[in-house]
């Protein structure tokens, strides 16, 4: 068991040294230091808070659609910022790397082992009217 854990730590270290993780860390730092992004994120958090309040009553709340549209508009504005879109691409690349590694490990044990993925499921996930928990916590 100790040897297996040692190999798992080595694999983790190799993943941390990968180009995908380096790209992710770079764009995360850029996003974290970008004042424009931080301003839009603050506006997004306020809009999301208002939407959460209206969501308790659902579409029957008089401001529900307006609050939902505002959240989506601010989220769309965020995605137009280059550092955010690059960060999302880097995040997807790391997710793909981790999924590929997990799939390889699971496949070497059995073809029937399921590997979790962040890919949206048909009929659910982002954009299907579900909860506001996809990606960076936004509605979409």
From TrEMBL:
Pfam families: Com_YlbF. Signal peptide: none annotated. Residues 120-140 are annotated as: Disordered. InterPro entries: Bact_com_dev_regulator, Com_YlbF, YheA/YmcA-like_dom_sf. Residues 122-140 have a biased composition (Gly residues). It comes from the Bacteria. This is YlbF family regulator. It comes from Paenibacillus spongiae.
């Amino acid at each position: 068991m100790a040897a297996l854990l040692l190999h798992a730590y080595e694999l983790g270290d190799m993943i941390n040294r990968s180009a995908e993780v380096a790209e992710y860390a770079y764009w995360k730092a850029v996003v974290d230091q970008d004042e424009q992004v931080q301003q839009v994120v603050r506006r997004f958090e306020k809009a999301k808070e208002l939407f959460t309040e209206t969501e308790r009553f659902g579409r029957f709340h008089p401001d529900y659609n307006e609050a939902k549209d505002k959240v989506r508009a601010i989220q769309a504005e965020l995605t137009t910022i280059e550092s955010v879109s690059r960060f999302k691409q880097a995040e997807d690349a790391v997710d793909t790397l981790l999924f590929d590694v997990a799939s390889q490990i699971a496949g070497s044990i059995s073809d029937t082992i399921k590997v979790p993925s962040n890919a949206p499921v048909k009929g659910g996930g982002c954009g299907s009217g579900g909860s506001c928990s996809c990606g960076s916590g936004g509605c979409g």
